[in-house]
């Protein structure tokens, strides 16, 4: 049987090298017994999936991807281009979208994540005020945040993310318009509106799941030095049934401690495009994660 393959993004400046963003992970993957290959992320996002996978050997078998985020439609094109060369992504396109975009995972995690609503929108075209008001109404008033189906403008918090009162439709619309404007062509799916919860803790924990098992808990990559709170590290058993229900093989859950001490899921992500904190790939935890991924590749057929 062919070794498990990891597909990493190539360095745009040196196409034969791994993107520095994930270069240490390529070493960890090889140490775990996997093979590695490079894909051209720019070509994939430009719509040329054939060129993106041109350097992947034919008949490589089962593969995980690790690298920059990919819009779900482009991921489907990647899967198809790889299939044409005899390589199957271990997370199929439907499962990828389910974990990557909030509307895909929200229903499963509704009890443990802030209340949310969403409405589709295209880049550069924010929803009308009346549509936003109707979408936000079930959340009631009080503070909220807006983001797209995948990413927020958290670094432009007051301008394009947070709003003090969701029932103030004028303000909600202004913040949403600015978020859509700043996301520009990268706006994914549409607009998500969420009730705001207080997370006073020092930082989020990112729990890494492979086939329903929490194999690693790291800091959030925004705060690589922050040690995850014990209560967050202990949340695995409570979340395991939800991760199992989601049915995606490699996911992350970002966890924060609410002011009442309850661990909450801030967001779910596809593990292939979730960042590890700087330096984590070379640690014992990083090794454990890559070994689990290699083991998983040999144990089940790929889902849709
Ligand atoms: N409902 C909420 N209540 C309180 N704080 C929130 C809420 N949603 C998001 N935040 C805060 O905003 C930050 C960014 O939100 P979120 O993680 O959803 O966006 P993101 O852009 O996908 O971030 P990243 O991919 O870097 O984790 C969170 O880390 C959290 O601190
Ligand atoms: Mg986040």
UniProtKB/TrEMBL annotation:
Cross-referenced InterPro entries: R2K_3
Pfam families linked to this entry: R2K_3
Every ATP-grasp domain range: 139-279
Protein name: ATP-grasp domain-containing protein
Species in which this protein is naturally found: Streptomyces xinghaiensis
């Amino acid at each position: 049987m062919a070794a498990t393959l990891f597909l990493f993004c190539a360095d745009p400046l040196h196409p034969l090298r791994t993107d520095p963003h994930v270069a240490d992970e390529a070493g960890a993957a090889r140490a775990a017994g996997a093979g590695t290959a490079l894909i051209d992320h720019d070509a994939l996002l430009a719509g040329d999936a054939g060129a993106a996978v041109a350097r992947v050997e034919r008949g490589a078998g089962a593969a995980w991807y690790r690298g920059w985020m990919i819009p779900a439609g482009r991921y489907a094109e990647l899967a198809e281009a790889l299939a044409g060369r005899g390589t199957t992504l271990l997370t199929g396109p439907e499962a990828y979208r389910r974990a990557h975009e909030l509307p895909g995972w929200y229903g499963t995690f509704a009890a443990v994540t802030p209340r949310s609503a969403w409405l589709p929108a295209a880049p550069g075209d924010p929803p009308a005020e009346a549509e936003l008001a109707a979408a936000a109404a079930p959340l009631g008033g009080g503070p909220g945040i807006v983001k797209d189906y995948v990413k927020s403008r958290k670094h432009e918090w007051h301008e394009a993310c947070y709003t003090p009162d969701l029932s103030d439709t004028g303000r909600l619309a202004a913040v949403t318009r600015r978020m859509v404007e700043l996301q520009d062509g990268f706006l994914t799916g549409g607009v998500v509106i969420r009730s705001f919860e207080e997370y006073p803790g020092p930082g989020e924990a990112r729990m890494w799941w492979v086939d329903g098992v929490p194999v690693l808990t790291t800091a959030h990559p925004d705060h690589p030095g922050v040690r995850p709170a014990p209560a967050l590290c202990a949340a695995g058993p409570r979340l395991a049934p939800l991760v199992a229900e989601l049915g995606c093989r490699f996911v992350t859950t970002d966890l924060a401690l609410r002011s009442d001490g309850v661990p909450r899921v801030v967001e779910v992500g596809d593990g292939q495009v979730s960042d590890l904190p700087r330096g984590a790939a070379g640690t014992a935890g990083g090794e454990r994660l890559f070994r689990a991924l290699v083991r998983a590749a040999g144990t089940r057929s790929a889902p849709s």
